[in-house]
Amino acid sequence: MTDTAPSPPTSEPLAPYPAPGQVGAILLTEAQIQERVRELGDELARKYRDTTPLFIAVMKGSVIFAADLMRAFKAPVEFDVMVVSSYGDALETTGVVKIVKDLDTPAAGRHVVLVEDIVDTGLTMQYLLDHFSKQGAASVSVCSLLVREGSEAAGLNVEHIGFEIPHDFVIGYGLDAAQIYRNLPYIGVFTGDL
Ligand code: PRP
Fold first, then answer.
1. Spacing, Cα 171 to ligand 1 middle (Å)
2. Average pLDDT, integer, range 152-178
3. 168 tagged catalytic
4. What is the pLDDT of residues 86-117, one digit of tens each?
């Protein structure tokens, strides 16, 4: 994307964002998401009440969810990030998971919670489950805000799920279209052009 330079301060109204035509149906409102995140935080705090888990945010998509989930987890927790990518700017998975940035904290012996924005084909999750089992994690759970409908049929076991969603191209609350729209507070269907 080619950007123009930042503008001087102005009190003029800003252009609407998202621009008209970019978002169709709102699948999950901000309030629905926030309520479910509070429930997931409570569920996880009860599950890990006798230990301090290591939350690993799988970036970049989980940036917003992980920040909110951490605050909804009312107990001691450690936090680290991995940057993983399999889609890049493409609509279809490349089929290859790349670790762009690994953990700073050793996962061996830890109770790991992988925090994902979406489990779609399950490729990323499967790769990370294998990765952390090889690293000697004491346990690995997955908490994903979204999973695609039918992912259970594909043999995926995501223990902590926010919502099941249909096979639309969704954006917002961390999810992008060509890296834009992650900052929308809701999740909607992308209807723009890439
Ligand atoms: C997205 C998402 C998950 C993964 C899920 O990441 O954040 O990590 O795809 O897809 P899968 O179940 O088919 O593997 P993406 O590669 O788009 O990178 P991003 O998080 O930086 O947006």
1. 12
2. 89
3. no
4. 866 666 667 789 899 999 889 999 999 999 99
Q: Contacts by 78-81 with C-beta closer than 8 Å and gap 24+?
A: 78/52, 78/53, 78/54, 78/105, 78/110, 79/54, 79/55, 80/54, 80/55, 80/56, 80/104, 80/105, 81/56, 81/57
Q: How many CA atoms lie within 13 A of 13 on its CB side?
A: 3
3-state secondary structure (DSSP) of residue 144: strand
Q: What is the pTM of this model?
A: 0.92
Q: Is the pLDDT of residue 171 over 60?
A: yes
16, two tokens: 């609407």
Higher pLDDT, 5 or 46: 46
**Residue-range domains of the chain with CATH:** 31-168 (3.40.50.2020)
Identify the active-site residue in 102, 104, 117, 120.
120
Q: Given a cut of 60, is residue 153 above it in pLDDT? A: no
For atom 17 of ligand 1, the residue with the nearest CA is: 87
Q: Which position has the token pair 């290591």?
A: 54
State in Å: Cα 48 to ligand 1 middle: 26
